[in-house]
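Exam revision sheet. Question 4 asks you to relate a sequence to its structure. Input first:
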Amino acid sequence: MNQGLTVWFTGLSSAGKTTLSRAVRERLCAAGRRVELIDGDVIRQYLCKDLGYSKADRDENIRRIGFVAELLTRHGVIVLVAAISPYRALRDEMREKIGNFLEIYVHAPLEICERRDLKGIYKRARLGELHGVTGIDDPYEAPHAADVECRTDLETLAESTAKVLSAVERWFANSGWR
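Answer key, structure tokens:
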């Protein structure tokens, strides 16, 4: 069986991970690829609703997402993971465990993310109503060398999507799998 690929979108809340991964999914599906999207918010509702936001719980959340991504990847699926995944060590662990892995840094400055924040997470954190918010009172460790960096504050969605698709196609061309 042909191996798949995990494309891991990481970045602050409201940086554009879900929007970008959905656009990439649409294009890959249109090209006839087998694709699954794992969205961090959805996983929190179903697979990880027992977890909080401590470092240990965040790590467990990412390990569960990584386990599902690895299973699907092994069975020839292109898995798009859109999850904050704030800690570099856990993303590196997932890369090592999954193997067929591209890290996409969905980068927008905190000020931009705060302006885009439809859920009100940052506002509530700034008011002291929420604690442990990534980028406010919990760290986000940006990748040292992401496979792709999408500056969603400077690029259009089409430009960011094209960068990710190009990296995916390059990966498949280099792996010998079509």
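Marking note for examiners. The mean pLDDT is 90.
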